[in-house]
Amino acid sequence: MSTSELLQIEPVELQFPFELKKQISCSMQLTNKSDNYVAFKVKTTNPKKYCVRPNTGVVLPHSSCDVIVTMQAQKEAPVDMQCRDKFLLQSAVVNPGVTAKDITPEMFNKETGNQVDECKLRVAYVPPPQPPSPVREGSEEGSSPRASVTDNGAVNQTPDFNTMTKAFAAQHENTSEVKALIAKLTEEKHSAVHQNSKLQQELELLRRQGNRSRGGVPFTYIIIVGLIGLLLGYFLKRT
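Below the sequence we write its predicted structure tokens.
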């Protein structure tokens, strides 16, 4: 941070995460802590390489202004990633009500008696930000859950351990439900077997009574009882 009599500039070094064939921008903030209207103008030693918006303006009393500096896409990387470009920010006190359209070069001329401040800004290339790792810090695929010990000797389980505990409890609960369902189906199967056995006994009894009686048991009734037995047998095979 640079503090002059007129404007406070943050930062004083413009850092660009350098990448080939890509436009890169950085910003700086101009803060006016005085009671005056302060005009500013941004110059650079390489105007074809950089775009400054706004390059001129007026900062009102006790207010701030953001300036965006954009570096055009570069086809080649500089030697040793060193940049010799420089920026110069000039500021001058102007009359209240002056706007950016009213700014003229004479306002920044010290020979006219105006109060003018100048601040030089350096340019630096920094490595581009790295993408986040897909594996969370402190855990590895296939590793066992970890725990940390606090100063008072207490053990803090990691989120992975808590997750595994919940999963185990849910699995145990599901196992209990499956066991209950199997017990219910087994009971129903035993009941069906008992009913089938009872029907077979009744059918055999009817057959014996039919042999002893003259008229006998109606053949249709025997067929119906036999079909019921077949249906129960089919149900038992499916279960």
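The helical segments are 159-212, 219-238.
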